[in-house]
Amino acid sequence: MEPPVSLGIEVRDLRLQYGDVAALDGLSFSLSGGKIYGLLGRNGSGKTSLLSILAAFRRKTSGTVHIGGQEPFENERVTAEVCLIRESGGDVYDNTRLEQLLRMAADLRPAFDHQYALKLADRFQLPMRKNVQSLSRGQRSALGAVMGLAANARLTMFDESYLGMDAPSRYAFYDELIANYTENPRTFIISTHLIEEVARLFEEVLIIHKGRLVLHDDVEAVRSRGVSVIGPAEVVDTFTAGLTVLNGQSLGRTKAVTVYGTLDDDQRRAAALAGLELGPVSLQDLFVHLTGQPEAEAAR
Amino acid sequence: MFDDRSPIYQQIADKIKKDILYGDLSAGDQVMSTNQYASFYRINPATAAKAFQQLTDEGYLYKRRGIGMFVSDDAQAQLRQQRREHFFADVVAPMVAEAKAIGITLDEIIHHLTNKDGTPGESRD
Amino acid sequence: MSTVAKHLAYNYRWVYGIFMSIMILMMAGLALSFEVFGHYALDDQRSSVWETVGLQAPRWFLFVIGIMLATVNLPVLVAHGITRRLFARGALVFAVASSAAFSVLMLMGFVVERAVYSANGMMAAIDDYPLAKVSDAGRFYVEITLAGLLFLLSGWVIGLLFYRLRVWLALLALPVVTLPVIGGIAMGVSTMAGVEMSFVNVVLIQLAAVVVVSALGYFLGRDVAIKPKKA
Question: Taking burial as the number of CB atoms within 10 A of a residue's CB, which of A236, C33, C69, C208 is the most buried?
């Protein structure tokens, strides 16, 4: 057996067209692999389209997609190493008992860890002798979590699939994800629009909006990069001239803006002297500012 | 446990420093491993590793290969020294500024602090 | 046997088992009804009972299996890291094996029915009995196996059409797709009905239909997108 090498991902100018609508519109990024990536985007931003192409669920319209240096579509060397669990909680037979599904998965995926799957199913209290169609939404999501983690695929993707679980189950999922990743480091991509809860699981974060990449960075760097600036409108405008301003709102003569970028000590001192108040910005706020109505901002 | 507004590794490092400063972690004590820390606080292992890297770079922790990470002998002294240097700027200056703004004189502050062997009183009389 | 074919065999073992048991029960019933009621049971019978029960029913069953392969099994297996190409290859093996297995029972039914009718002196009253001579059994088996395969494959194609296209588009495309199927089957049926055509010609026409329908299935399936499932 070759040693487990993380699968890098290269995406260049990726397009996916549904008739007149471009779900992905020239998306480009590259991931070194072996990390837990957060894929953030609003509903309809193209998250699911991107993951579907990576998992070879659908064919791209144009552009380049390489996983471990190879095109994934209809390439069994890649697809055997990739697992995508979709929103509904994974693609499985509805009229089949859980214990059989796990056995089937073990037959179809050489890397599937059946013992681990049984252990996880027990932790999520899944009724092994019941059919999938008799499961609650939360149990369906938990089944997706089990299938995804136990698949042991070198690229494992969860497309908001865990959101159907209640809070205790979601936390159990986060625990298992970290334990699994620590023991067997590989590439995970987790898409979400509920950021606060999962952001700390990520090492890097990608934000896509309208089928394009808005941001890709180390999540810790992103956290230190958003700065809110509050003060008299003219002073704020002077200070933020030349900085990347994401949004702004005014209340009387006071203006509050969110700046993206690291301020150095000189800038911070200058801000203090000018009577401006600087504050941190959460990843969630930053996400909202980066993806929320940029047109309205440009007009201001 | 952590807020989302500043780098989490920074918050972890700060918490461990605080534990050392207040004596909850003593010289020679072993700290949790990166992985234990990651699963305990549900954070990415790389984030935890970054915090420990910073703490070893700054000399508060040291690594023993294959065993784990431990609190350095002079970690507490070093931290106290550092905090002392910043005490007046970081803690006293803002207090004085606030006092000035609301009209409390320095005398009042001194009186308050020296009253009842330095224990802060509930009210001023 | 490929992973996919094995998986499909495992997946359909109960459905197949139940359907095959019913066929065997029918066969036994057919034989028994004569034992119990004598020739009154089939006094006015002018055609083969088994032709309806034992020949047409399994074909439509295989047709439904074809639809299921395209709309249920394909998406699940692609989600488990199997390529469409590998699936199609395994599904074809499974399809041939399915048709071959059901055809054994279909043929057995005719042999049994024939024996029963002959024993009761009824064969003379029946026009165009599907299995004209017992010595034709081998050729007959090949023809019904190919016809069963055609039913399954056309189910696969129609399943894919509805999976891929909007319903009205699929309906529009339907006649085009069914032409070769209808052609292939009509040939098989017409020979059975007594229209003179050599065994080799029938098989050639059926094989041509298999190739055309398989090609259609291949083109419809090779880049099919796996649709989102409703939660």
Answer: C69
A187 Cβ contact partners less than 8 Å away, ≥ 6 residues apart: A6, A7, A9, A31, A33, A34, A35, A37, A154, A155, A156
Segment holding A25, helix H or strand E = strand A21-31
Residues whose CB is less than 8 angstroms from the CB of residue C208 and which lie 6 or more positions away in sequence, other chains included: C180, C184
**Cβ–Cβ gap A200/B8 under 8 Å:** yes
Tokens representing residue A64 in the block: 């380049």
Q: What are the structural domain ranges in chain C? A: 3-221
Q: How many CB atoms neighbour CB B4 within 10 A?
A: 19
| Domains with residue ranges and CATH for chain A | 9-210 (3.40.50.300), 222-299 (3.30.70.240)
Among candidate residues A186, A88, A116, A55, the one with its CA nearest the CA of residue C79 = A55
Q: Is C195 left (phi over 0), alpha (psi -120 to 50) or beta?
A: beta
User: What is the identity of the amino acid at C92?
Assistant: L
Order of strands across the sheet that contains A21-31? A21-31, A9-18, A62-67
Q: Does B117 touch chain A (CB under 8 A)?
A: no
Residues B67 and B18 occupy one common structural domain:
yes
Contacts of C7 in chain A (CB under 8 A): 104, 107-108
* Radius of gyration of chain C from its Cα atoms, rounded to whole angstroms: 19
pLDDT digits (tens, 9 = 90+) for C65-89: 999 999 999 999 999 999 999 999 9
Question: What residues contact residue C97 under an 8 Å CB cut-off, 6+ apart?
Answer: C5, C9
Rounded to 10 degrees, the C-alpha dihedral A185/A187/A193/A198 comes to 10
> With contacts defined as CB-CB under 8 Å, which chain A residues touch B6?
223-224, 280
Cβ contact A76–C78 (<8 Å): no
CA-nearest residue to A163 within chain C is C231
Domain hosting residue B13, numbered range: 8-73
What distances in angstroms separate CA A289 from CA A174, A234, A285, C22, one per listed residue? Answer: 27, 22, 6, 65
How far is residue A111's CA from residue A107's CA, in Å, rounded to a whole number? Answer: 9
Using an 8 Å CB-CB cutoff, list chain B residues near A170. none
Task: Report CB contact under 8 Å: B43, A200.
Answer: yes
Q: What is the pLDDT of residue A298?
A: 38
- The C-alpha atoms of residue A38 and residue A192 are separated, in whole angstroms, by 7
Instruction: Give me the number of domains chain B comprises.
Output: 2
CA dihedral defined by C79, C82, C83, C88, rounded to 10 degrees? Answer: -110
CATH of the domain at B55: 1.10.10.10
Residue C115 is predicted with a pLDDT of: 86
Rounded to the nearest 10°, the torsion over CA A139, A141, A147, A153 is -160
Touch between B and A (at least 3 CB pairs under 8 Å)? yes
Q: How confident is the model at residue A290 (pLDDT cuts 50, 70, 90)?
A: confident
